């Protein structure tokens, strides 16, 4: 049996995730093979030691933070066995790079893909900008090798029925990562289960041919209504992503990229194409909807696209700098609403009386409103505002989490959209899978 690491100096590096929630653990296991994962699980099970699966800790919800017990790190399960066959601990972008070198494409693209693991993306059913066209991680996973809480190690796919009672519920009709997925098969139950139903040690993926050409552009709009009317038409014209930046976000970007013009908002689109770039068609569309068309930044090559992505990725960094400077925590939403309620949700965001920057996946009507409190009083105000906005999103038929999941920090928000009977059904499933509730205890929902 693999010896646990108990050196506090080593453990220290595993006790927080990107939410900055701090936890504690007595021991750490770093298995090198699925069989070792099963041994660790069996050891924890026989002693009723809680076990938290930890991968790259980019979770923003405290999901990978242990609250006592053992940590099971997937970091050494890091082999790409074949183009469609990869270990859970491999960094997602490394795997995608390997696949792309062979002319193939694995679409899921969380913004954290250079830092997060394949298994983490599966456990969180991670999404990204390209989810607008390709959906979240789920449809790109064909099968998974899983160590279940019972310590059984096996491959599962969509033909593997669930041995546990499956809760029946209808997810909101929006992009959502809140709660256990209502599936009768084991693969879909494990995907998005945030480490509650087992350890994903290896997956078989579904790949596409790598798109030959991608046209990327950043277009600026003088008013909210011009942006929304363009968005309405753009959604139907087949881009693979439509990303939004509000005035506050553009101001933050301008701090780093001065040539960004003053505008109400901007949209960044990526359009895959075979032959000539459909530049004229998109330019006409922009003009038709009163965009500031001449300021549009267009790139057609990988280098240019990487620069635009760097602009997009500079935003969370700029937000974090402000938060660190102010010495408080960020309050960031992850709500998605039905398309027809998006304008209403944006108006609610406008009414927030604290500094904000709003950006994200507007193609899916899924935005991140970052509330930037200057002090602890404003932090309390920001949290109260968050709760009001969560209630509004749910009342509109939306979700409290479009992609980041529930973890430890958003359990109260999940209760806004799931009735008590559903929590009971989820608990019954969890008890059937893991009677001593050792895996991910305190994540998503509690034993009672
Ligand atoms: C800057 C930034 C940008 C982000 N952008 C996005 C985004 O665009 N879209 C998005 O969806 N998310 C995003 N995230 C959230 C996060 O990156 C993703 O959810 C990611 O999938 C987590 O992967 P990880 O390897 O870091 O997992 P961890 O944070 O280590 O773990 C997350 C959860 O998954 C469980 N877990 C991890 N690996 C396994 C495994 N092999 N088997 C079973 N359970 C496991 C853990 O127990 C935990 O519950 C972002 C985070 C940051 C910090």
Q: In what order do the strands lie side by side in the largest sheet?
A: 14-11-13-12-16-17-15
The secondary-structure class comes to alpha+beta
Shape: globular
Bound molecules: flavin-adenine dinucleotide
CATH third-level topology of the domain at 211-303: Alpha-Beta Plaits
Helix run count: 14
Q: Strand fraction band?
A: 15-25%
In CATH's first tier, which class of the domain at 211-303 applies? Alpha Beta
CATH architecture tag of the domain at 211-303: 2-Layer Sandwich
First and last CA, distance:
33 Å
Helix fraction, binned, reads 25-40%
| Unreliable stretches covering 5 or more consecutive residues | none
Largest sheet: 7 strands, antiparallel
How many β-strand stretches? Answer: 17
Q: Radius of gyration, Cα only, in angstroms?
A: 22 Å
Key traits:
448 residues; alpha+beta; Alpha-Beta Plaits; five-stranded antiparallel sheet; 14 helices; 18% strand; binds flavin-adenine dinucleotide
Map the helices and strands.
Blueprint: H1 8-11, E1 27-29, H2 34-47, E2 51-54, E3 70-73, E4 80-82, E5 85-87, H3 92-101, E6 104-105, H4 118-123, H5 131-134, E7 141-147, E8 153-157, H6 186-190, E9 199-205, E10 208-209, E11 213-221, H7 224-235, E12 241-246, H8 247-254, E13 265-273, H9 279-288, E14 297-299, H10 302-326, E15 331-332, H11 342-350, E16 356-361, E17 366-371, H12 376-395, H13 411-417, H14 420-433
Parallel strand pairs: 1-3, 2-3
Antiparallel strand pairs: 4-5, 5-9, 6-10, 7-8, 7-9, 11-13, 11-14, 12-13, 12-16, 15-17, 16-17
The protein binds flavin-adenine dinucleotide.
Flavin-adenine dinucleotide binds at residues 17-18, 52-60, 63-64, 74, 88, 110-112, 116-117, 119-121, 123-124, 126-128, 194-195, 199-200, 316, 403-404, 440, 443.
